[in-house]
Amino acid sequence: MTEARKASRRPGAGRRAGESGTREAILDAARREFGARGYDGATIRGIAAAAGVNPALVHHFYGAKEQLFAAAMRLPVVPSQVLSAVMAAERERLGDDFVNHIGEALVRGLLGIWEAPEPRSAFLGLIRSAVTSERSAAMLREFVTGTILATLMQVARPADADDRTSRYRASLVATQVIGLGFARYVLQLKPLATASTEDLVAAIGPALQRYLTGDLGPTT
Amino acid sequence: MTEARKASRRPGAGRRAGESGTREAILDAARREFGARGYDGATIRGIAAAAGVNPALVHHFYGAKEQLFAAAMRLPVVPSQVLSAVMAAERERLGDDFVNHIGEALVRGLLGIWEAPEPRSAFLGLIRSAVTSERSAAMLREFVTGTILATLMQVARPADADDRTSRYRASLVATQVIGLGFARYVLQLKPLATASTEDLVAAIGPALQRYLTGDLGPTT
User: Mapping DSSP to helix (H, G, I), strand (E, B) and coil, where does residue A162 land?
Assistant: First the structure.
């Protein structure tokens, strides 16, 4: 790690520390760049420069920006990939009826991820960082908006929706989803914390469905 | 402050430091006791003993435990009092129709409180403490359950509801409410963060109404 950090200050020297050293140097640089410039502002090119390696090597090790962010923040999954996979599986299972059950699928998919300790603590780590630093909050906002909510908008967007409305619907979903995670895993409010997945699917799924495709009142 | 702390170690001597010194000593003791024993475990009697004053004096200065907690945590309002007042005003305004609009009233009332900087930062401070320490999370859970959710259960409880169901409904409301505050004020997700109060009342009110009085599925 120290070797890698030293290496990262000499452009082109990163590889000498071995592959794992280079990987660490890239993740260190990514954390610094995401922290300093936010999710939108940081670039693969800038992170590569900060790590003293070729951008192609960053792509080779980590793929696109979201994957690199997930690795740098030690997220055990790439959120929008998991979301896409869960939605594809539910679409397969439900057929034409899928569009009326996206909310339930979301709750079921989320709880399926969160019940495992690693993704849960990664989620809680992001919440913690956002609440303790404005810079982290901005980074998380850009990340959530640019990846998770963008994916959600693609999955659930009604044909006639404009961009602003889609973003508004997706952000309403985010309020309920974040609050569910916080109340269940941080506050551990009872009996919410001990309710079964299917209870919560039945209770919260329709609320998400309405946010995504329902009538949200006269003014929006 | 230092004088008050010294005084607090000599039972009965608190008043010598003057009223503001005694008040500070009580709040210091309250923070220590709530932190060590949680909201449920701490008592006015124990806090008085820790501050070296008579329990009657604590009651005289701060009233009941919830008020003392609000003062110790620097909350600018006593949550369940504000909640009761907002609900009473809406009940007055809407008459018999109130029961169908509790969700909307809740969103309107909450945003009315949160749009002011002081209550908002107090709310965010509680969220921050809960996310950084398990002990604080337990304290906040007990406080939310014992005061805010208990009040909500009284206001919105259907005649035939049992205790567990009422608690479940109230905790579902908590998920949406906490997530709304987090997404709007911490993450500042757009366009949620810039949506008007009435937009959010129309969008989120019905979700809360369903949690309080609607059909939550076959299994609950």
Answer: coil
Report the distance separating Cα B160 and Cα A181, nearest Å.
29
- How many other β-carbons are positioned within 10 Å of the β-carbon of residue A150? 14
Are B123 and B181 contacting, i.e. CB atoms less than 8 angstroms apart?
Answer: yes
Q: Which residues of chain B are within 8 Å of residue A201 when distances are taken between CB atoms?
A: 217
Tell me whether residues A217 and B199 touch, CB distance under 8 A. Answer: yes
Q: Tell me the pLDDT tens digit for each residue of A91-148.
A: 898 888 888 899 999 999 889 888 888 888 888 888 888 888 888 888 888 888 888 8
Name the closest residue on chain A to residue B169, using Cα atoms: A192
**Domains of chain A, CATH where assigned:** 2-72 (1.10.10.60), 79-213 (1.10.357.10)
Residues on chain A touching B183 (C-beta within 8 angstroms): 171, 174-175, 178
Q: What per-residue string of b and e applies to A4-21 under the rule 16 or more CB within 10 Å gives b?
A: beebbeeeeebeebeeeb
Cross-chain Cβ contact A192/B175 below 8 Å: yes
**B130/A186 touch (CB, cutoff 8 Å), yes or no:** yes
Q: What is the ipTM of this complex?
A: 0.82
Q: At what angle do helices B65-72 and B55-62 cross, to 10 degrees?
A: 70
**What does the longest C-alpha to C-alpha distance in chain A come to?**
63
The residue among A136, A132, A79, A127 whose CA lies nearest residue A106 is A79
